[in-house]
Amino acid sequence: MQGALPTHPELLDLLAHRFMESGWDFKALVRLIVTSRTYLQDSEATPDARAHDPENHLFSRGPAFRLSAEQIRDQALRVAGQLDPVTGGPS
Fold first, then answer.
1. Residue 35 exposure: Cα atoms within 13 Å on the Cβ side
2. Are residues 45 and 62 in contact, defined by beta-carbon separation less than 8 angstroms?
3. Please, what's the largest Cα pairwise distance for the chain?
4. Any residues with CB less than 8 A from the CB of 77 and at least 6 apart, and which?
5. Calpha distance 74→42 (Å, rounded)
6. What is the pLDDT along the chain (91 residues), one digit of tens a residue?
7. Whole-structure pTM over 0.90, yes or no?
8. Residues 6 or more apart in contact with residue 39 via CB below 8 angstroms
9. Following DSSP, what letter does each residue of 10-66 receive, concatenated?
10. Rounded CA gap, 67 and 74, in Å?
């Protein structure tokens, strides 16, 4: 499977460049992303934003909610084919 082409390839180039410049410092890359204005946006959408980008393809607004750590872990395990569907088993 292949996803859609990136909507902002220049941003990906910038992040890749900063990652290499930092000496492949993953922590610095994550800090750069999570302190960005885009990441910190409010989830509430204005009528103008909805009219311009109703499907939020341009990520003009943040998610309405964020997944818990357990949900992220379970999703990663599911994608990897390693999620045990038995409820109540050992963690």
1. 6
2. no
3. 49
4. 83
5. 26
6. 678 888 889 999 999 999 999 999 999 999 999 898 877 777 778 898 889 888 887 777 766 677 788 888 888 888 888 887 776 655 6
7. no
8. 33, 62
9. HHHHHHHHHHHHTTS-HHHHHHHHHTSTTTT--SPPPHHHHHH-TT-TT--S--SS-
10. 11
